[in-house]
Amino acid sequence: MIKTSQLSKRVGTASSELEILRGIDLEIKQGETAAIVGASGSGKSTLLGLLAGLDSPTAGDIYLDDINIVDLDEDQRATLRSEKVGFVFQNFQLLPALTALENVMLPLELAGTQGAREKSEGFLARVGLGERLHHYPRTLSGGEQQRVAIARAFASAPVILFADEPTGNLDTVTGANVVRLLFDLNIEEGTTLVLVTHDTDLADRCQRKFSMSAGRLEEAL
Amino acid sequence: MTSPITSSIRLLLRDWRGGELGVLFSALLLAVSVVVAISGFVNRLQLNLERESASFLASDLVVSSASLVPLTWIDEADSLGLARAETVTFSSMVISDSDEMFLASVKAVGGAYPLRGALSIDTGSLQPSSDMPEPGRVFLAPRLVEQLSVSIGDDVYVGDATLTVAGTLLSEPDSTSGFFGYGPRLVMNSVDLNATGVIQPGSRVTYRMLVAGDSDQLDRFHDWVKPQLVQGQRVLTVDESQPGIGATLDRARGFLLLAGSLGVVLAAAAILVAARRFGERHTDQVAVMKSLGATKHTIQQLYAFSLAWLGLIAIIVGSGIGWLAQSAMFNALADQLPGEITATGWSPYITGGVTALVCIGFFAWPPLARLGAVSPLRVIRREETIADATRASDLVLGAISLGLLMLWYSGDLKLTGALLGSVALTVGLGFGAAQLLLKGSRQIGSSAGSIWRLALAGMQRRGNASAFQVVIFGIAIMLLLVLTAVRTSLLDQWRLQIPEGTPNHFVLNLASSEEQTLLDFFAQRDIEVGELYPAARGRVMAVNDKPLPNWDEFEEGARQREANFTSTDTLPEGNKLVSGSWWEPGTEDALISLEDGFADDIGAKVGDRLSLRIAADEFVVEVASIREVNWESMQPNFFVIFPDSLLQRFPSTLFTSFYLDPSEKPRVGELLALMPTLTIIELDVAIQEIKTIIDQVSQAIELVLLVILVAGALVLIAGVSASVDERLHESAILRALGASRSTLLGAVAIEFAVMGALAGVLAILGSEAAGWALQTQMLDLKYQVQWLLWPTGIALGGGIIGVLGTFACRKVVAVPPLQVLREL
């Protein structure tokens, strides 16, 4: 499902070259849930960005659904994302000018999916926001905004869902509710879930747990 | 994939609702409305002014001839569809029933006379009439009515014809064309001309063919008839017949086009700023969309279509606003404008539309096109850099497109060059100096108090963005300064051209023996009289012993020239030496000073020997100097001047001028009663008409200046609001850390005031350069360094930008920090 081999990422700084990821090999199967944990600056988010095709590696290969995305250009990767990938971000990344419903409809519209509105209304109802379709992000609480983001991620029926610190901006109780929702939907939709987190409770709920340190990845067994 | 048209409309509607489009749309709307309003206004004003000035000729074009106008000319004018009329002017004695006689300047009119302007006739009824006299009837100038002691209904005799007085001539449109008929006017119908029997072979008569119509057809007629002119014939257009009015109109046209071009530059600047901001605000949105699967192509297509829709709406709405604005401006002037108000054609809307397209393509699109290149990685790494919103290549392309647009708009290469050159100077100097000063300001700031430190650090942190803002402010202030300065010198120059008390009557044929009588007459009535010049009619026969052909004075090429010769030992006011030197007062040498055009006509230069003839005497003089004469000044001017001692040898009469208030008009009759041999040329009506035109144009210019000021203010506001978002974030953090609202607002005020003052310096440098180029190269005005501008420009720049900036950023301290931080 997701497979990397000898994945590495280096960035040049003013004085020297910084190696963020060092030869990472990883394999996650269809429908699995996986957590990547690690200290700040250990390279978790960089890895997530590479796995989702948001950035290109310096070396190595990344296979999503048997397609080596390293061979794809930016536009081909975007098309792949629209077909197979969903996102949930720490800071929600809802567009402030769009209502909750329009935010959920956006990826469906971009992919030209028929019945975008009905599908989006259905997902918002499933995350408990059926009554707040036409609210703007600024009028929603943090938990509500993250639920809109989850509805948006699942609405386009992704094969893989990437979540970057999904509870990082939420209090414990709200965070727990959001996590429950994420896992419930994951089971219902049969999605592969890869999340990056500091939250050990959240990591513990995943079937597999990887630990990132100084650019190297190890699976915690 | 949903159709890009639907998606783009959806994006546009959502952006609109979210308030994202406000500034960009306003800037586009401003561009279209300003251009439509100004070009519509200029179009209509120009049409009306041309029509008004055409009334000086009573037509658009006149062909004058000493003999009957050839029939082929009439046929050609008819075949081109031009309206036609004719006048025949000559001097003749007019006699009344009571045997009073007076030499009148007779004008027989026919066809559709007048083609432009109108006669104003007091027929004794309440409403003055404007129709030409019917056969058998005449109109008399008030002075002729007075001299002949006649009233409406009485008969007068012109040659063998008996004609009935049908009214008093209050004004006529072509009163100033030709001063050959020195007496007061009598207007008759040309049908009665034969009956008078006055015109005989050898009579001094001027035949005029008047035509009016479409300017293309007029040009064709002009080009067709010009090569056929022979001795004694000439063709006149408004500009040629009235150099004063022609120059006034040319300058007004130049100014209005300058104003319109400035409107385009200002609008482009506003769009550039607004599109930059729009692009920056959309960076995060595009990153999210790309992470959700939008390709670069999708993003670019989406924004291109959105921009196209926005442009289309701006063109439609802007054209409407422009139409309303030009109607309002024009109606405000309607009372002063003669005749019906002409409608404006499609051209202003086409100009507005093309302006919008150029502005969108070269100023709004580049920052949006680069949104396609935003990295989707920004969704997880905010520090991911974004593409520079404005690149040097954009500015170069923008400048070229703007140059072409202005060139198309004004049709004037010098104007475009001067404006673009000064804008380029401001931009170049601006970026360099702003960077340097901003760096320096940090050092000053670090040793200053906390508000200053915050302000100067903020300015420096935004480095390039601050420099960009300074440059935009600088351009806007510069263009406004240029326009204001040009307007001021234009209006001053016009006011000087015909100041209050400009002589409006000229006295000819005054015998030296009558000099004292005349001076006493004026002294008793407290009327100021101008300098007395001796005048003798003479002819230039040869240059350097080479005889000149004896052809008519209207012909081109070196010919004999007849002129009024005068003498003075001091260079007359308004004359400027172009070559040679002025003679010592009291000189007895045989010298002469020539007007430059006259010197060209006879092919003479300084040092040449001229053979002259006055009456029967022939003598030789040397050209001592060549003068440039300001013919617009309405002062007595001469082609040929001698030293005083030389002309004393010849019989001469005296020539002078005086100013008469309209209420003192009867003095002319009194003077002629006292000295019947005098000839008085009355220019009061003509001067009044020139003043009316100048007043109208001045008002139009003030109105246009106001519109451009509004456009400039909007650019400043757009520039100021450009950095509000970033400030909002910073201020939220600073406030969370405990900074007081007054500290933050103080810092914002200082930051904008410093940028405004820098912009003021740039603006003054640019405006001095542009002002010099425009005034000396284009508007033919004198250039003066505006020293007062320096302190005022800097203070005003700092003050206005400081206040505007603080006002625009008041939200920065009004919104609770928590709300700002949550929204980010």
Folded structure, characterized:
The complex is a heterodimer of chains A (221) and B (824). Chain A has 221 residues and is α/β, with parallel strands linked by helices. Chain A has one domain (29-56, 73-219): 3-Layer(aba) Sandwich (Rossmann fold), CATH 3.40.50.300. In chain A, 35% of the residues lie in helices and 28% in strands. Chain A has 7 helices and 10 strands. Chain A has helices at 44-51, 74-84, 100-110, 116-126, 142-155, 172-189, 200-204, and strands at 2-12, 17-28, 33-38, 59-64, 67-68, 85-88, 160-164, 192-197, 208-213, 216-219. In chain A, β4 (59-64) and β5 (67-68) form a beta hairpin. Chain B contains 24 helices and 21 strands. Residues 177-181 and 551-556 of chain B have low confidence and may be disordered. At the A-B interface, α1, α2 and α3 of A face α1, α8, α9 and α24 of B.
In brief, what are we looking at here?
The complex is a heterodimer of chains A (221) and B (824). With 221 residues, chain A is of the alpha/beta class.
How many DSSP H or I helices of chain B?
24
Oligomer: heterodimer
Describe the biggest sheet of chain B? 6 strands, mixed, barrel
Q: So how many helices of chain A?
A: 7
Strand order across the largest sheet of chain A: 6-7-8-3-9-10
Measured distance between first and last alpha carbons of chain A: 20 Å
Number of E-state strands of chain B: 21
Query: What string gives the helices and strands of chain A in order?
Result: EEEHEEHEHHHEHEHEE
Q: Roughly what percent helix of chain B?
A: 40-55%
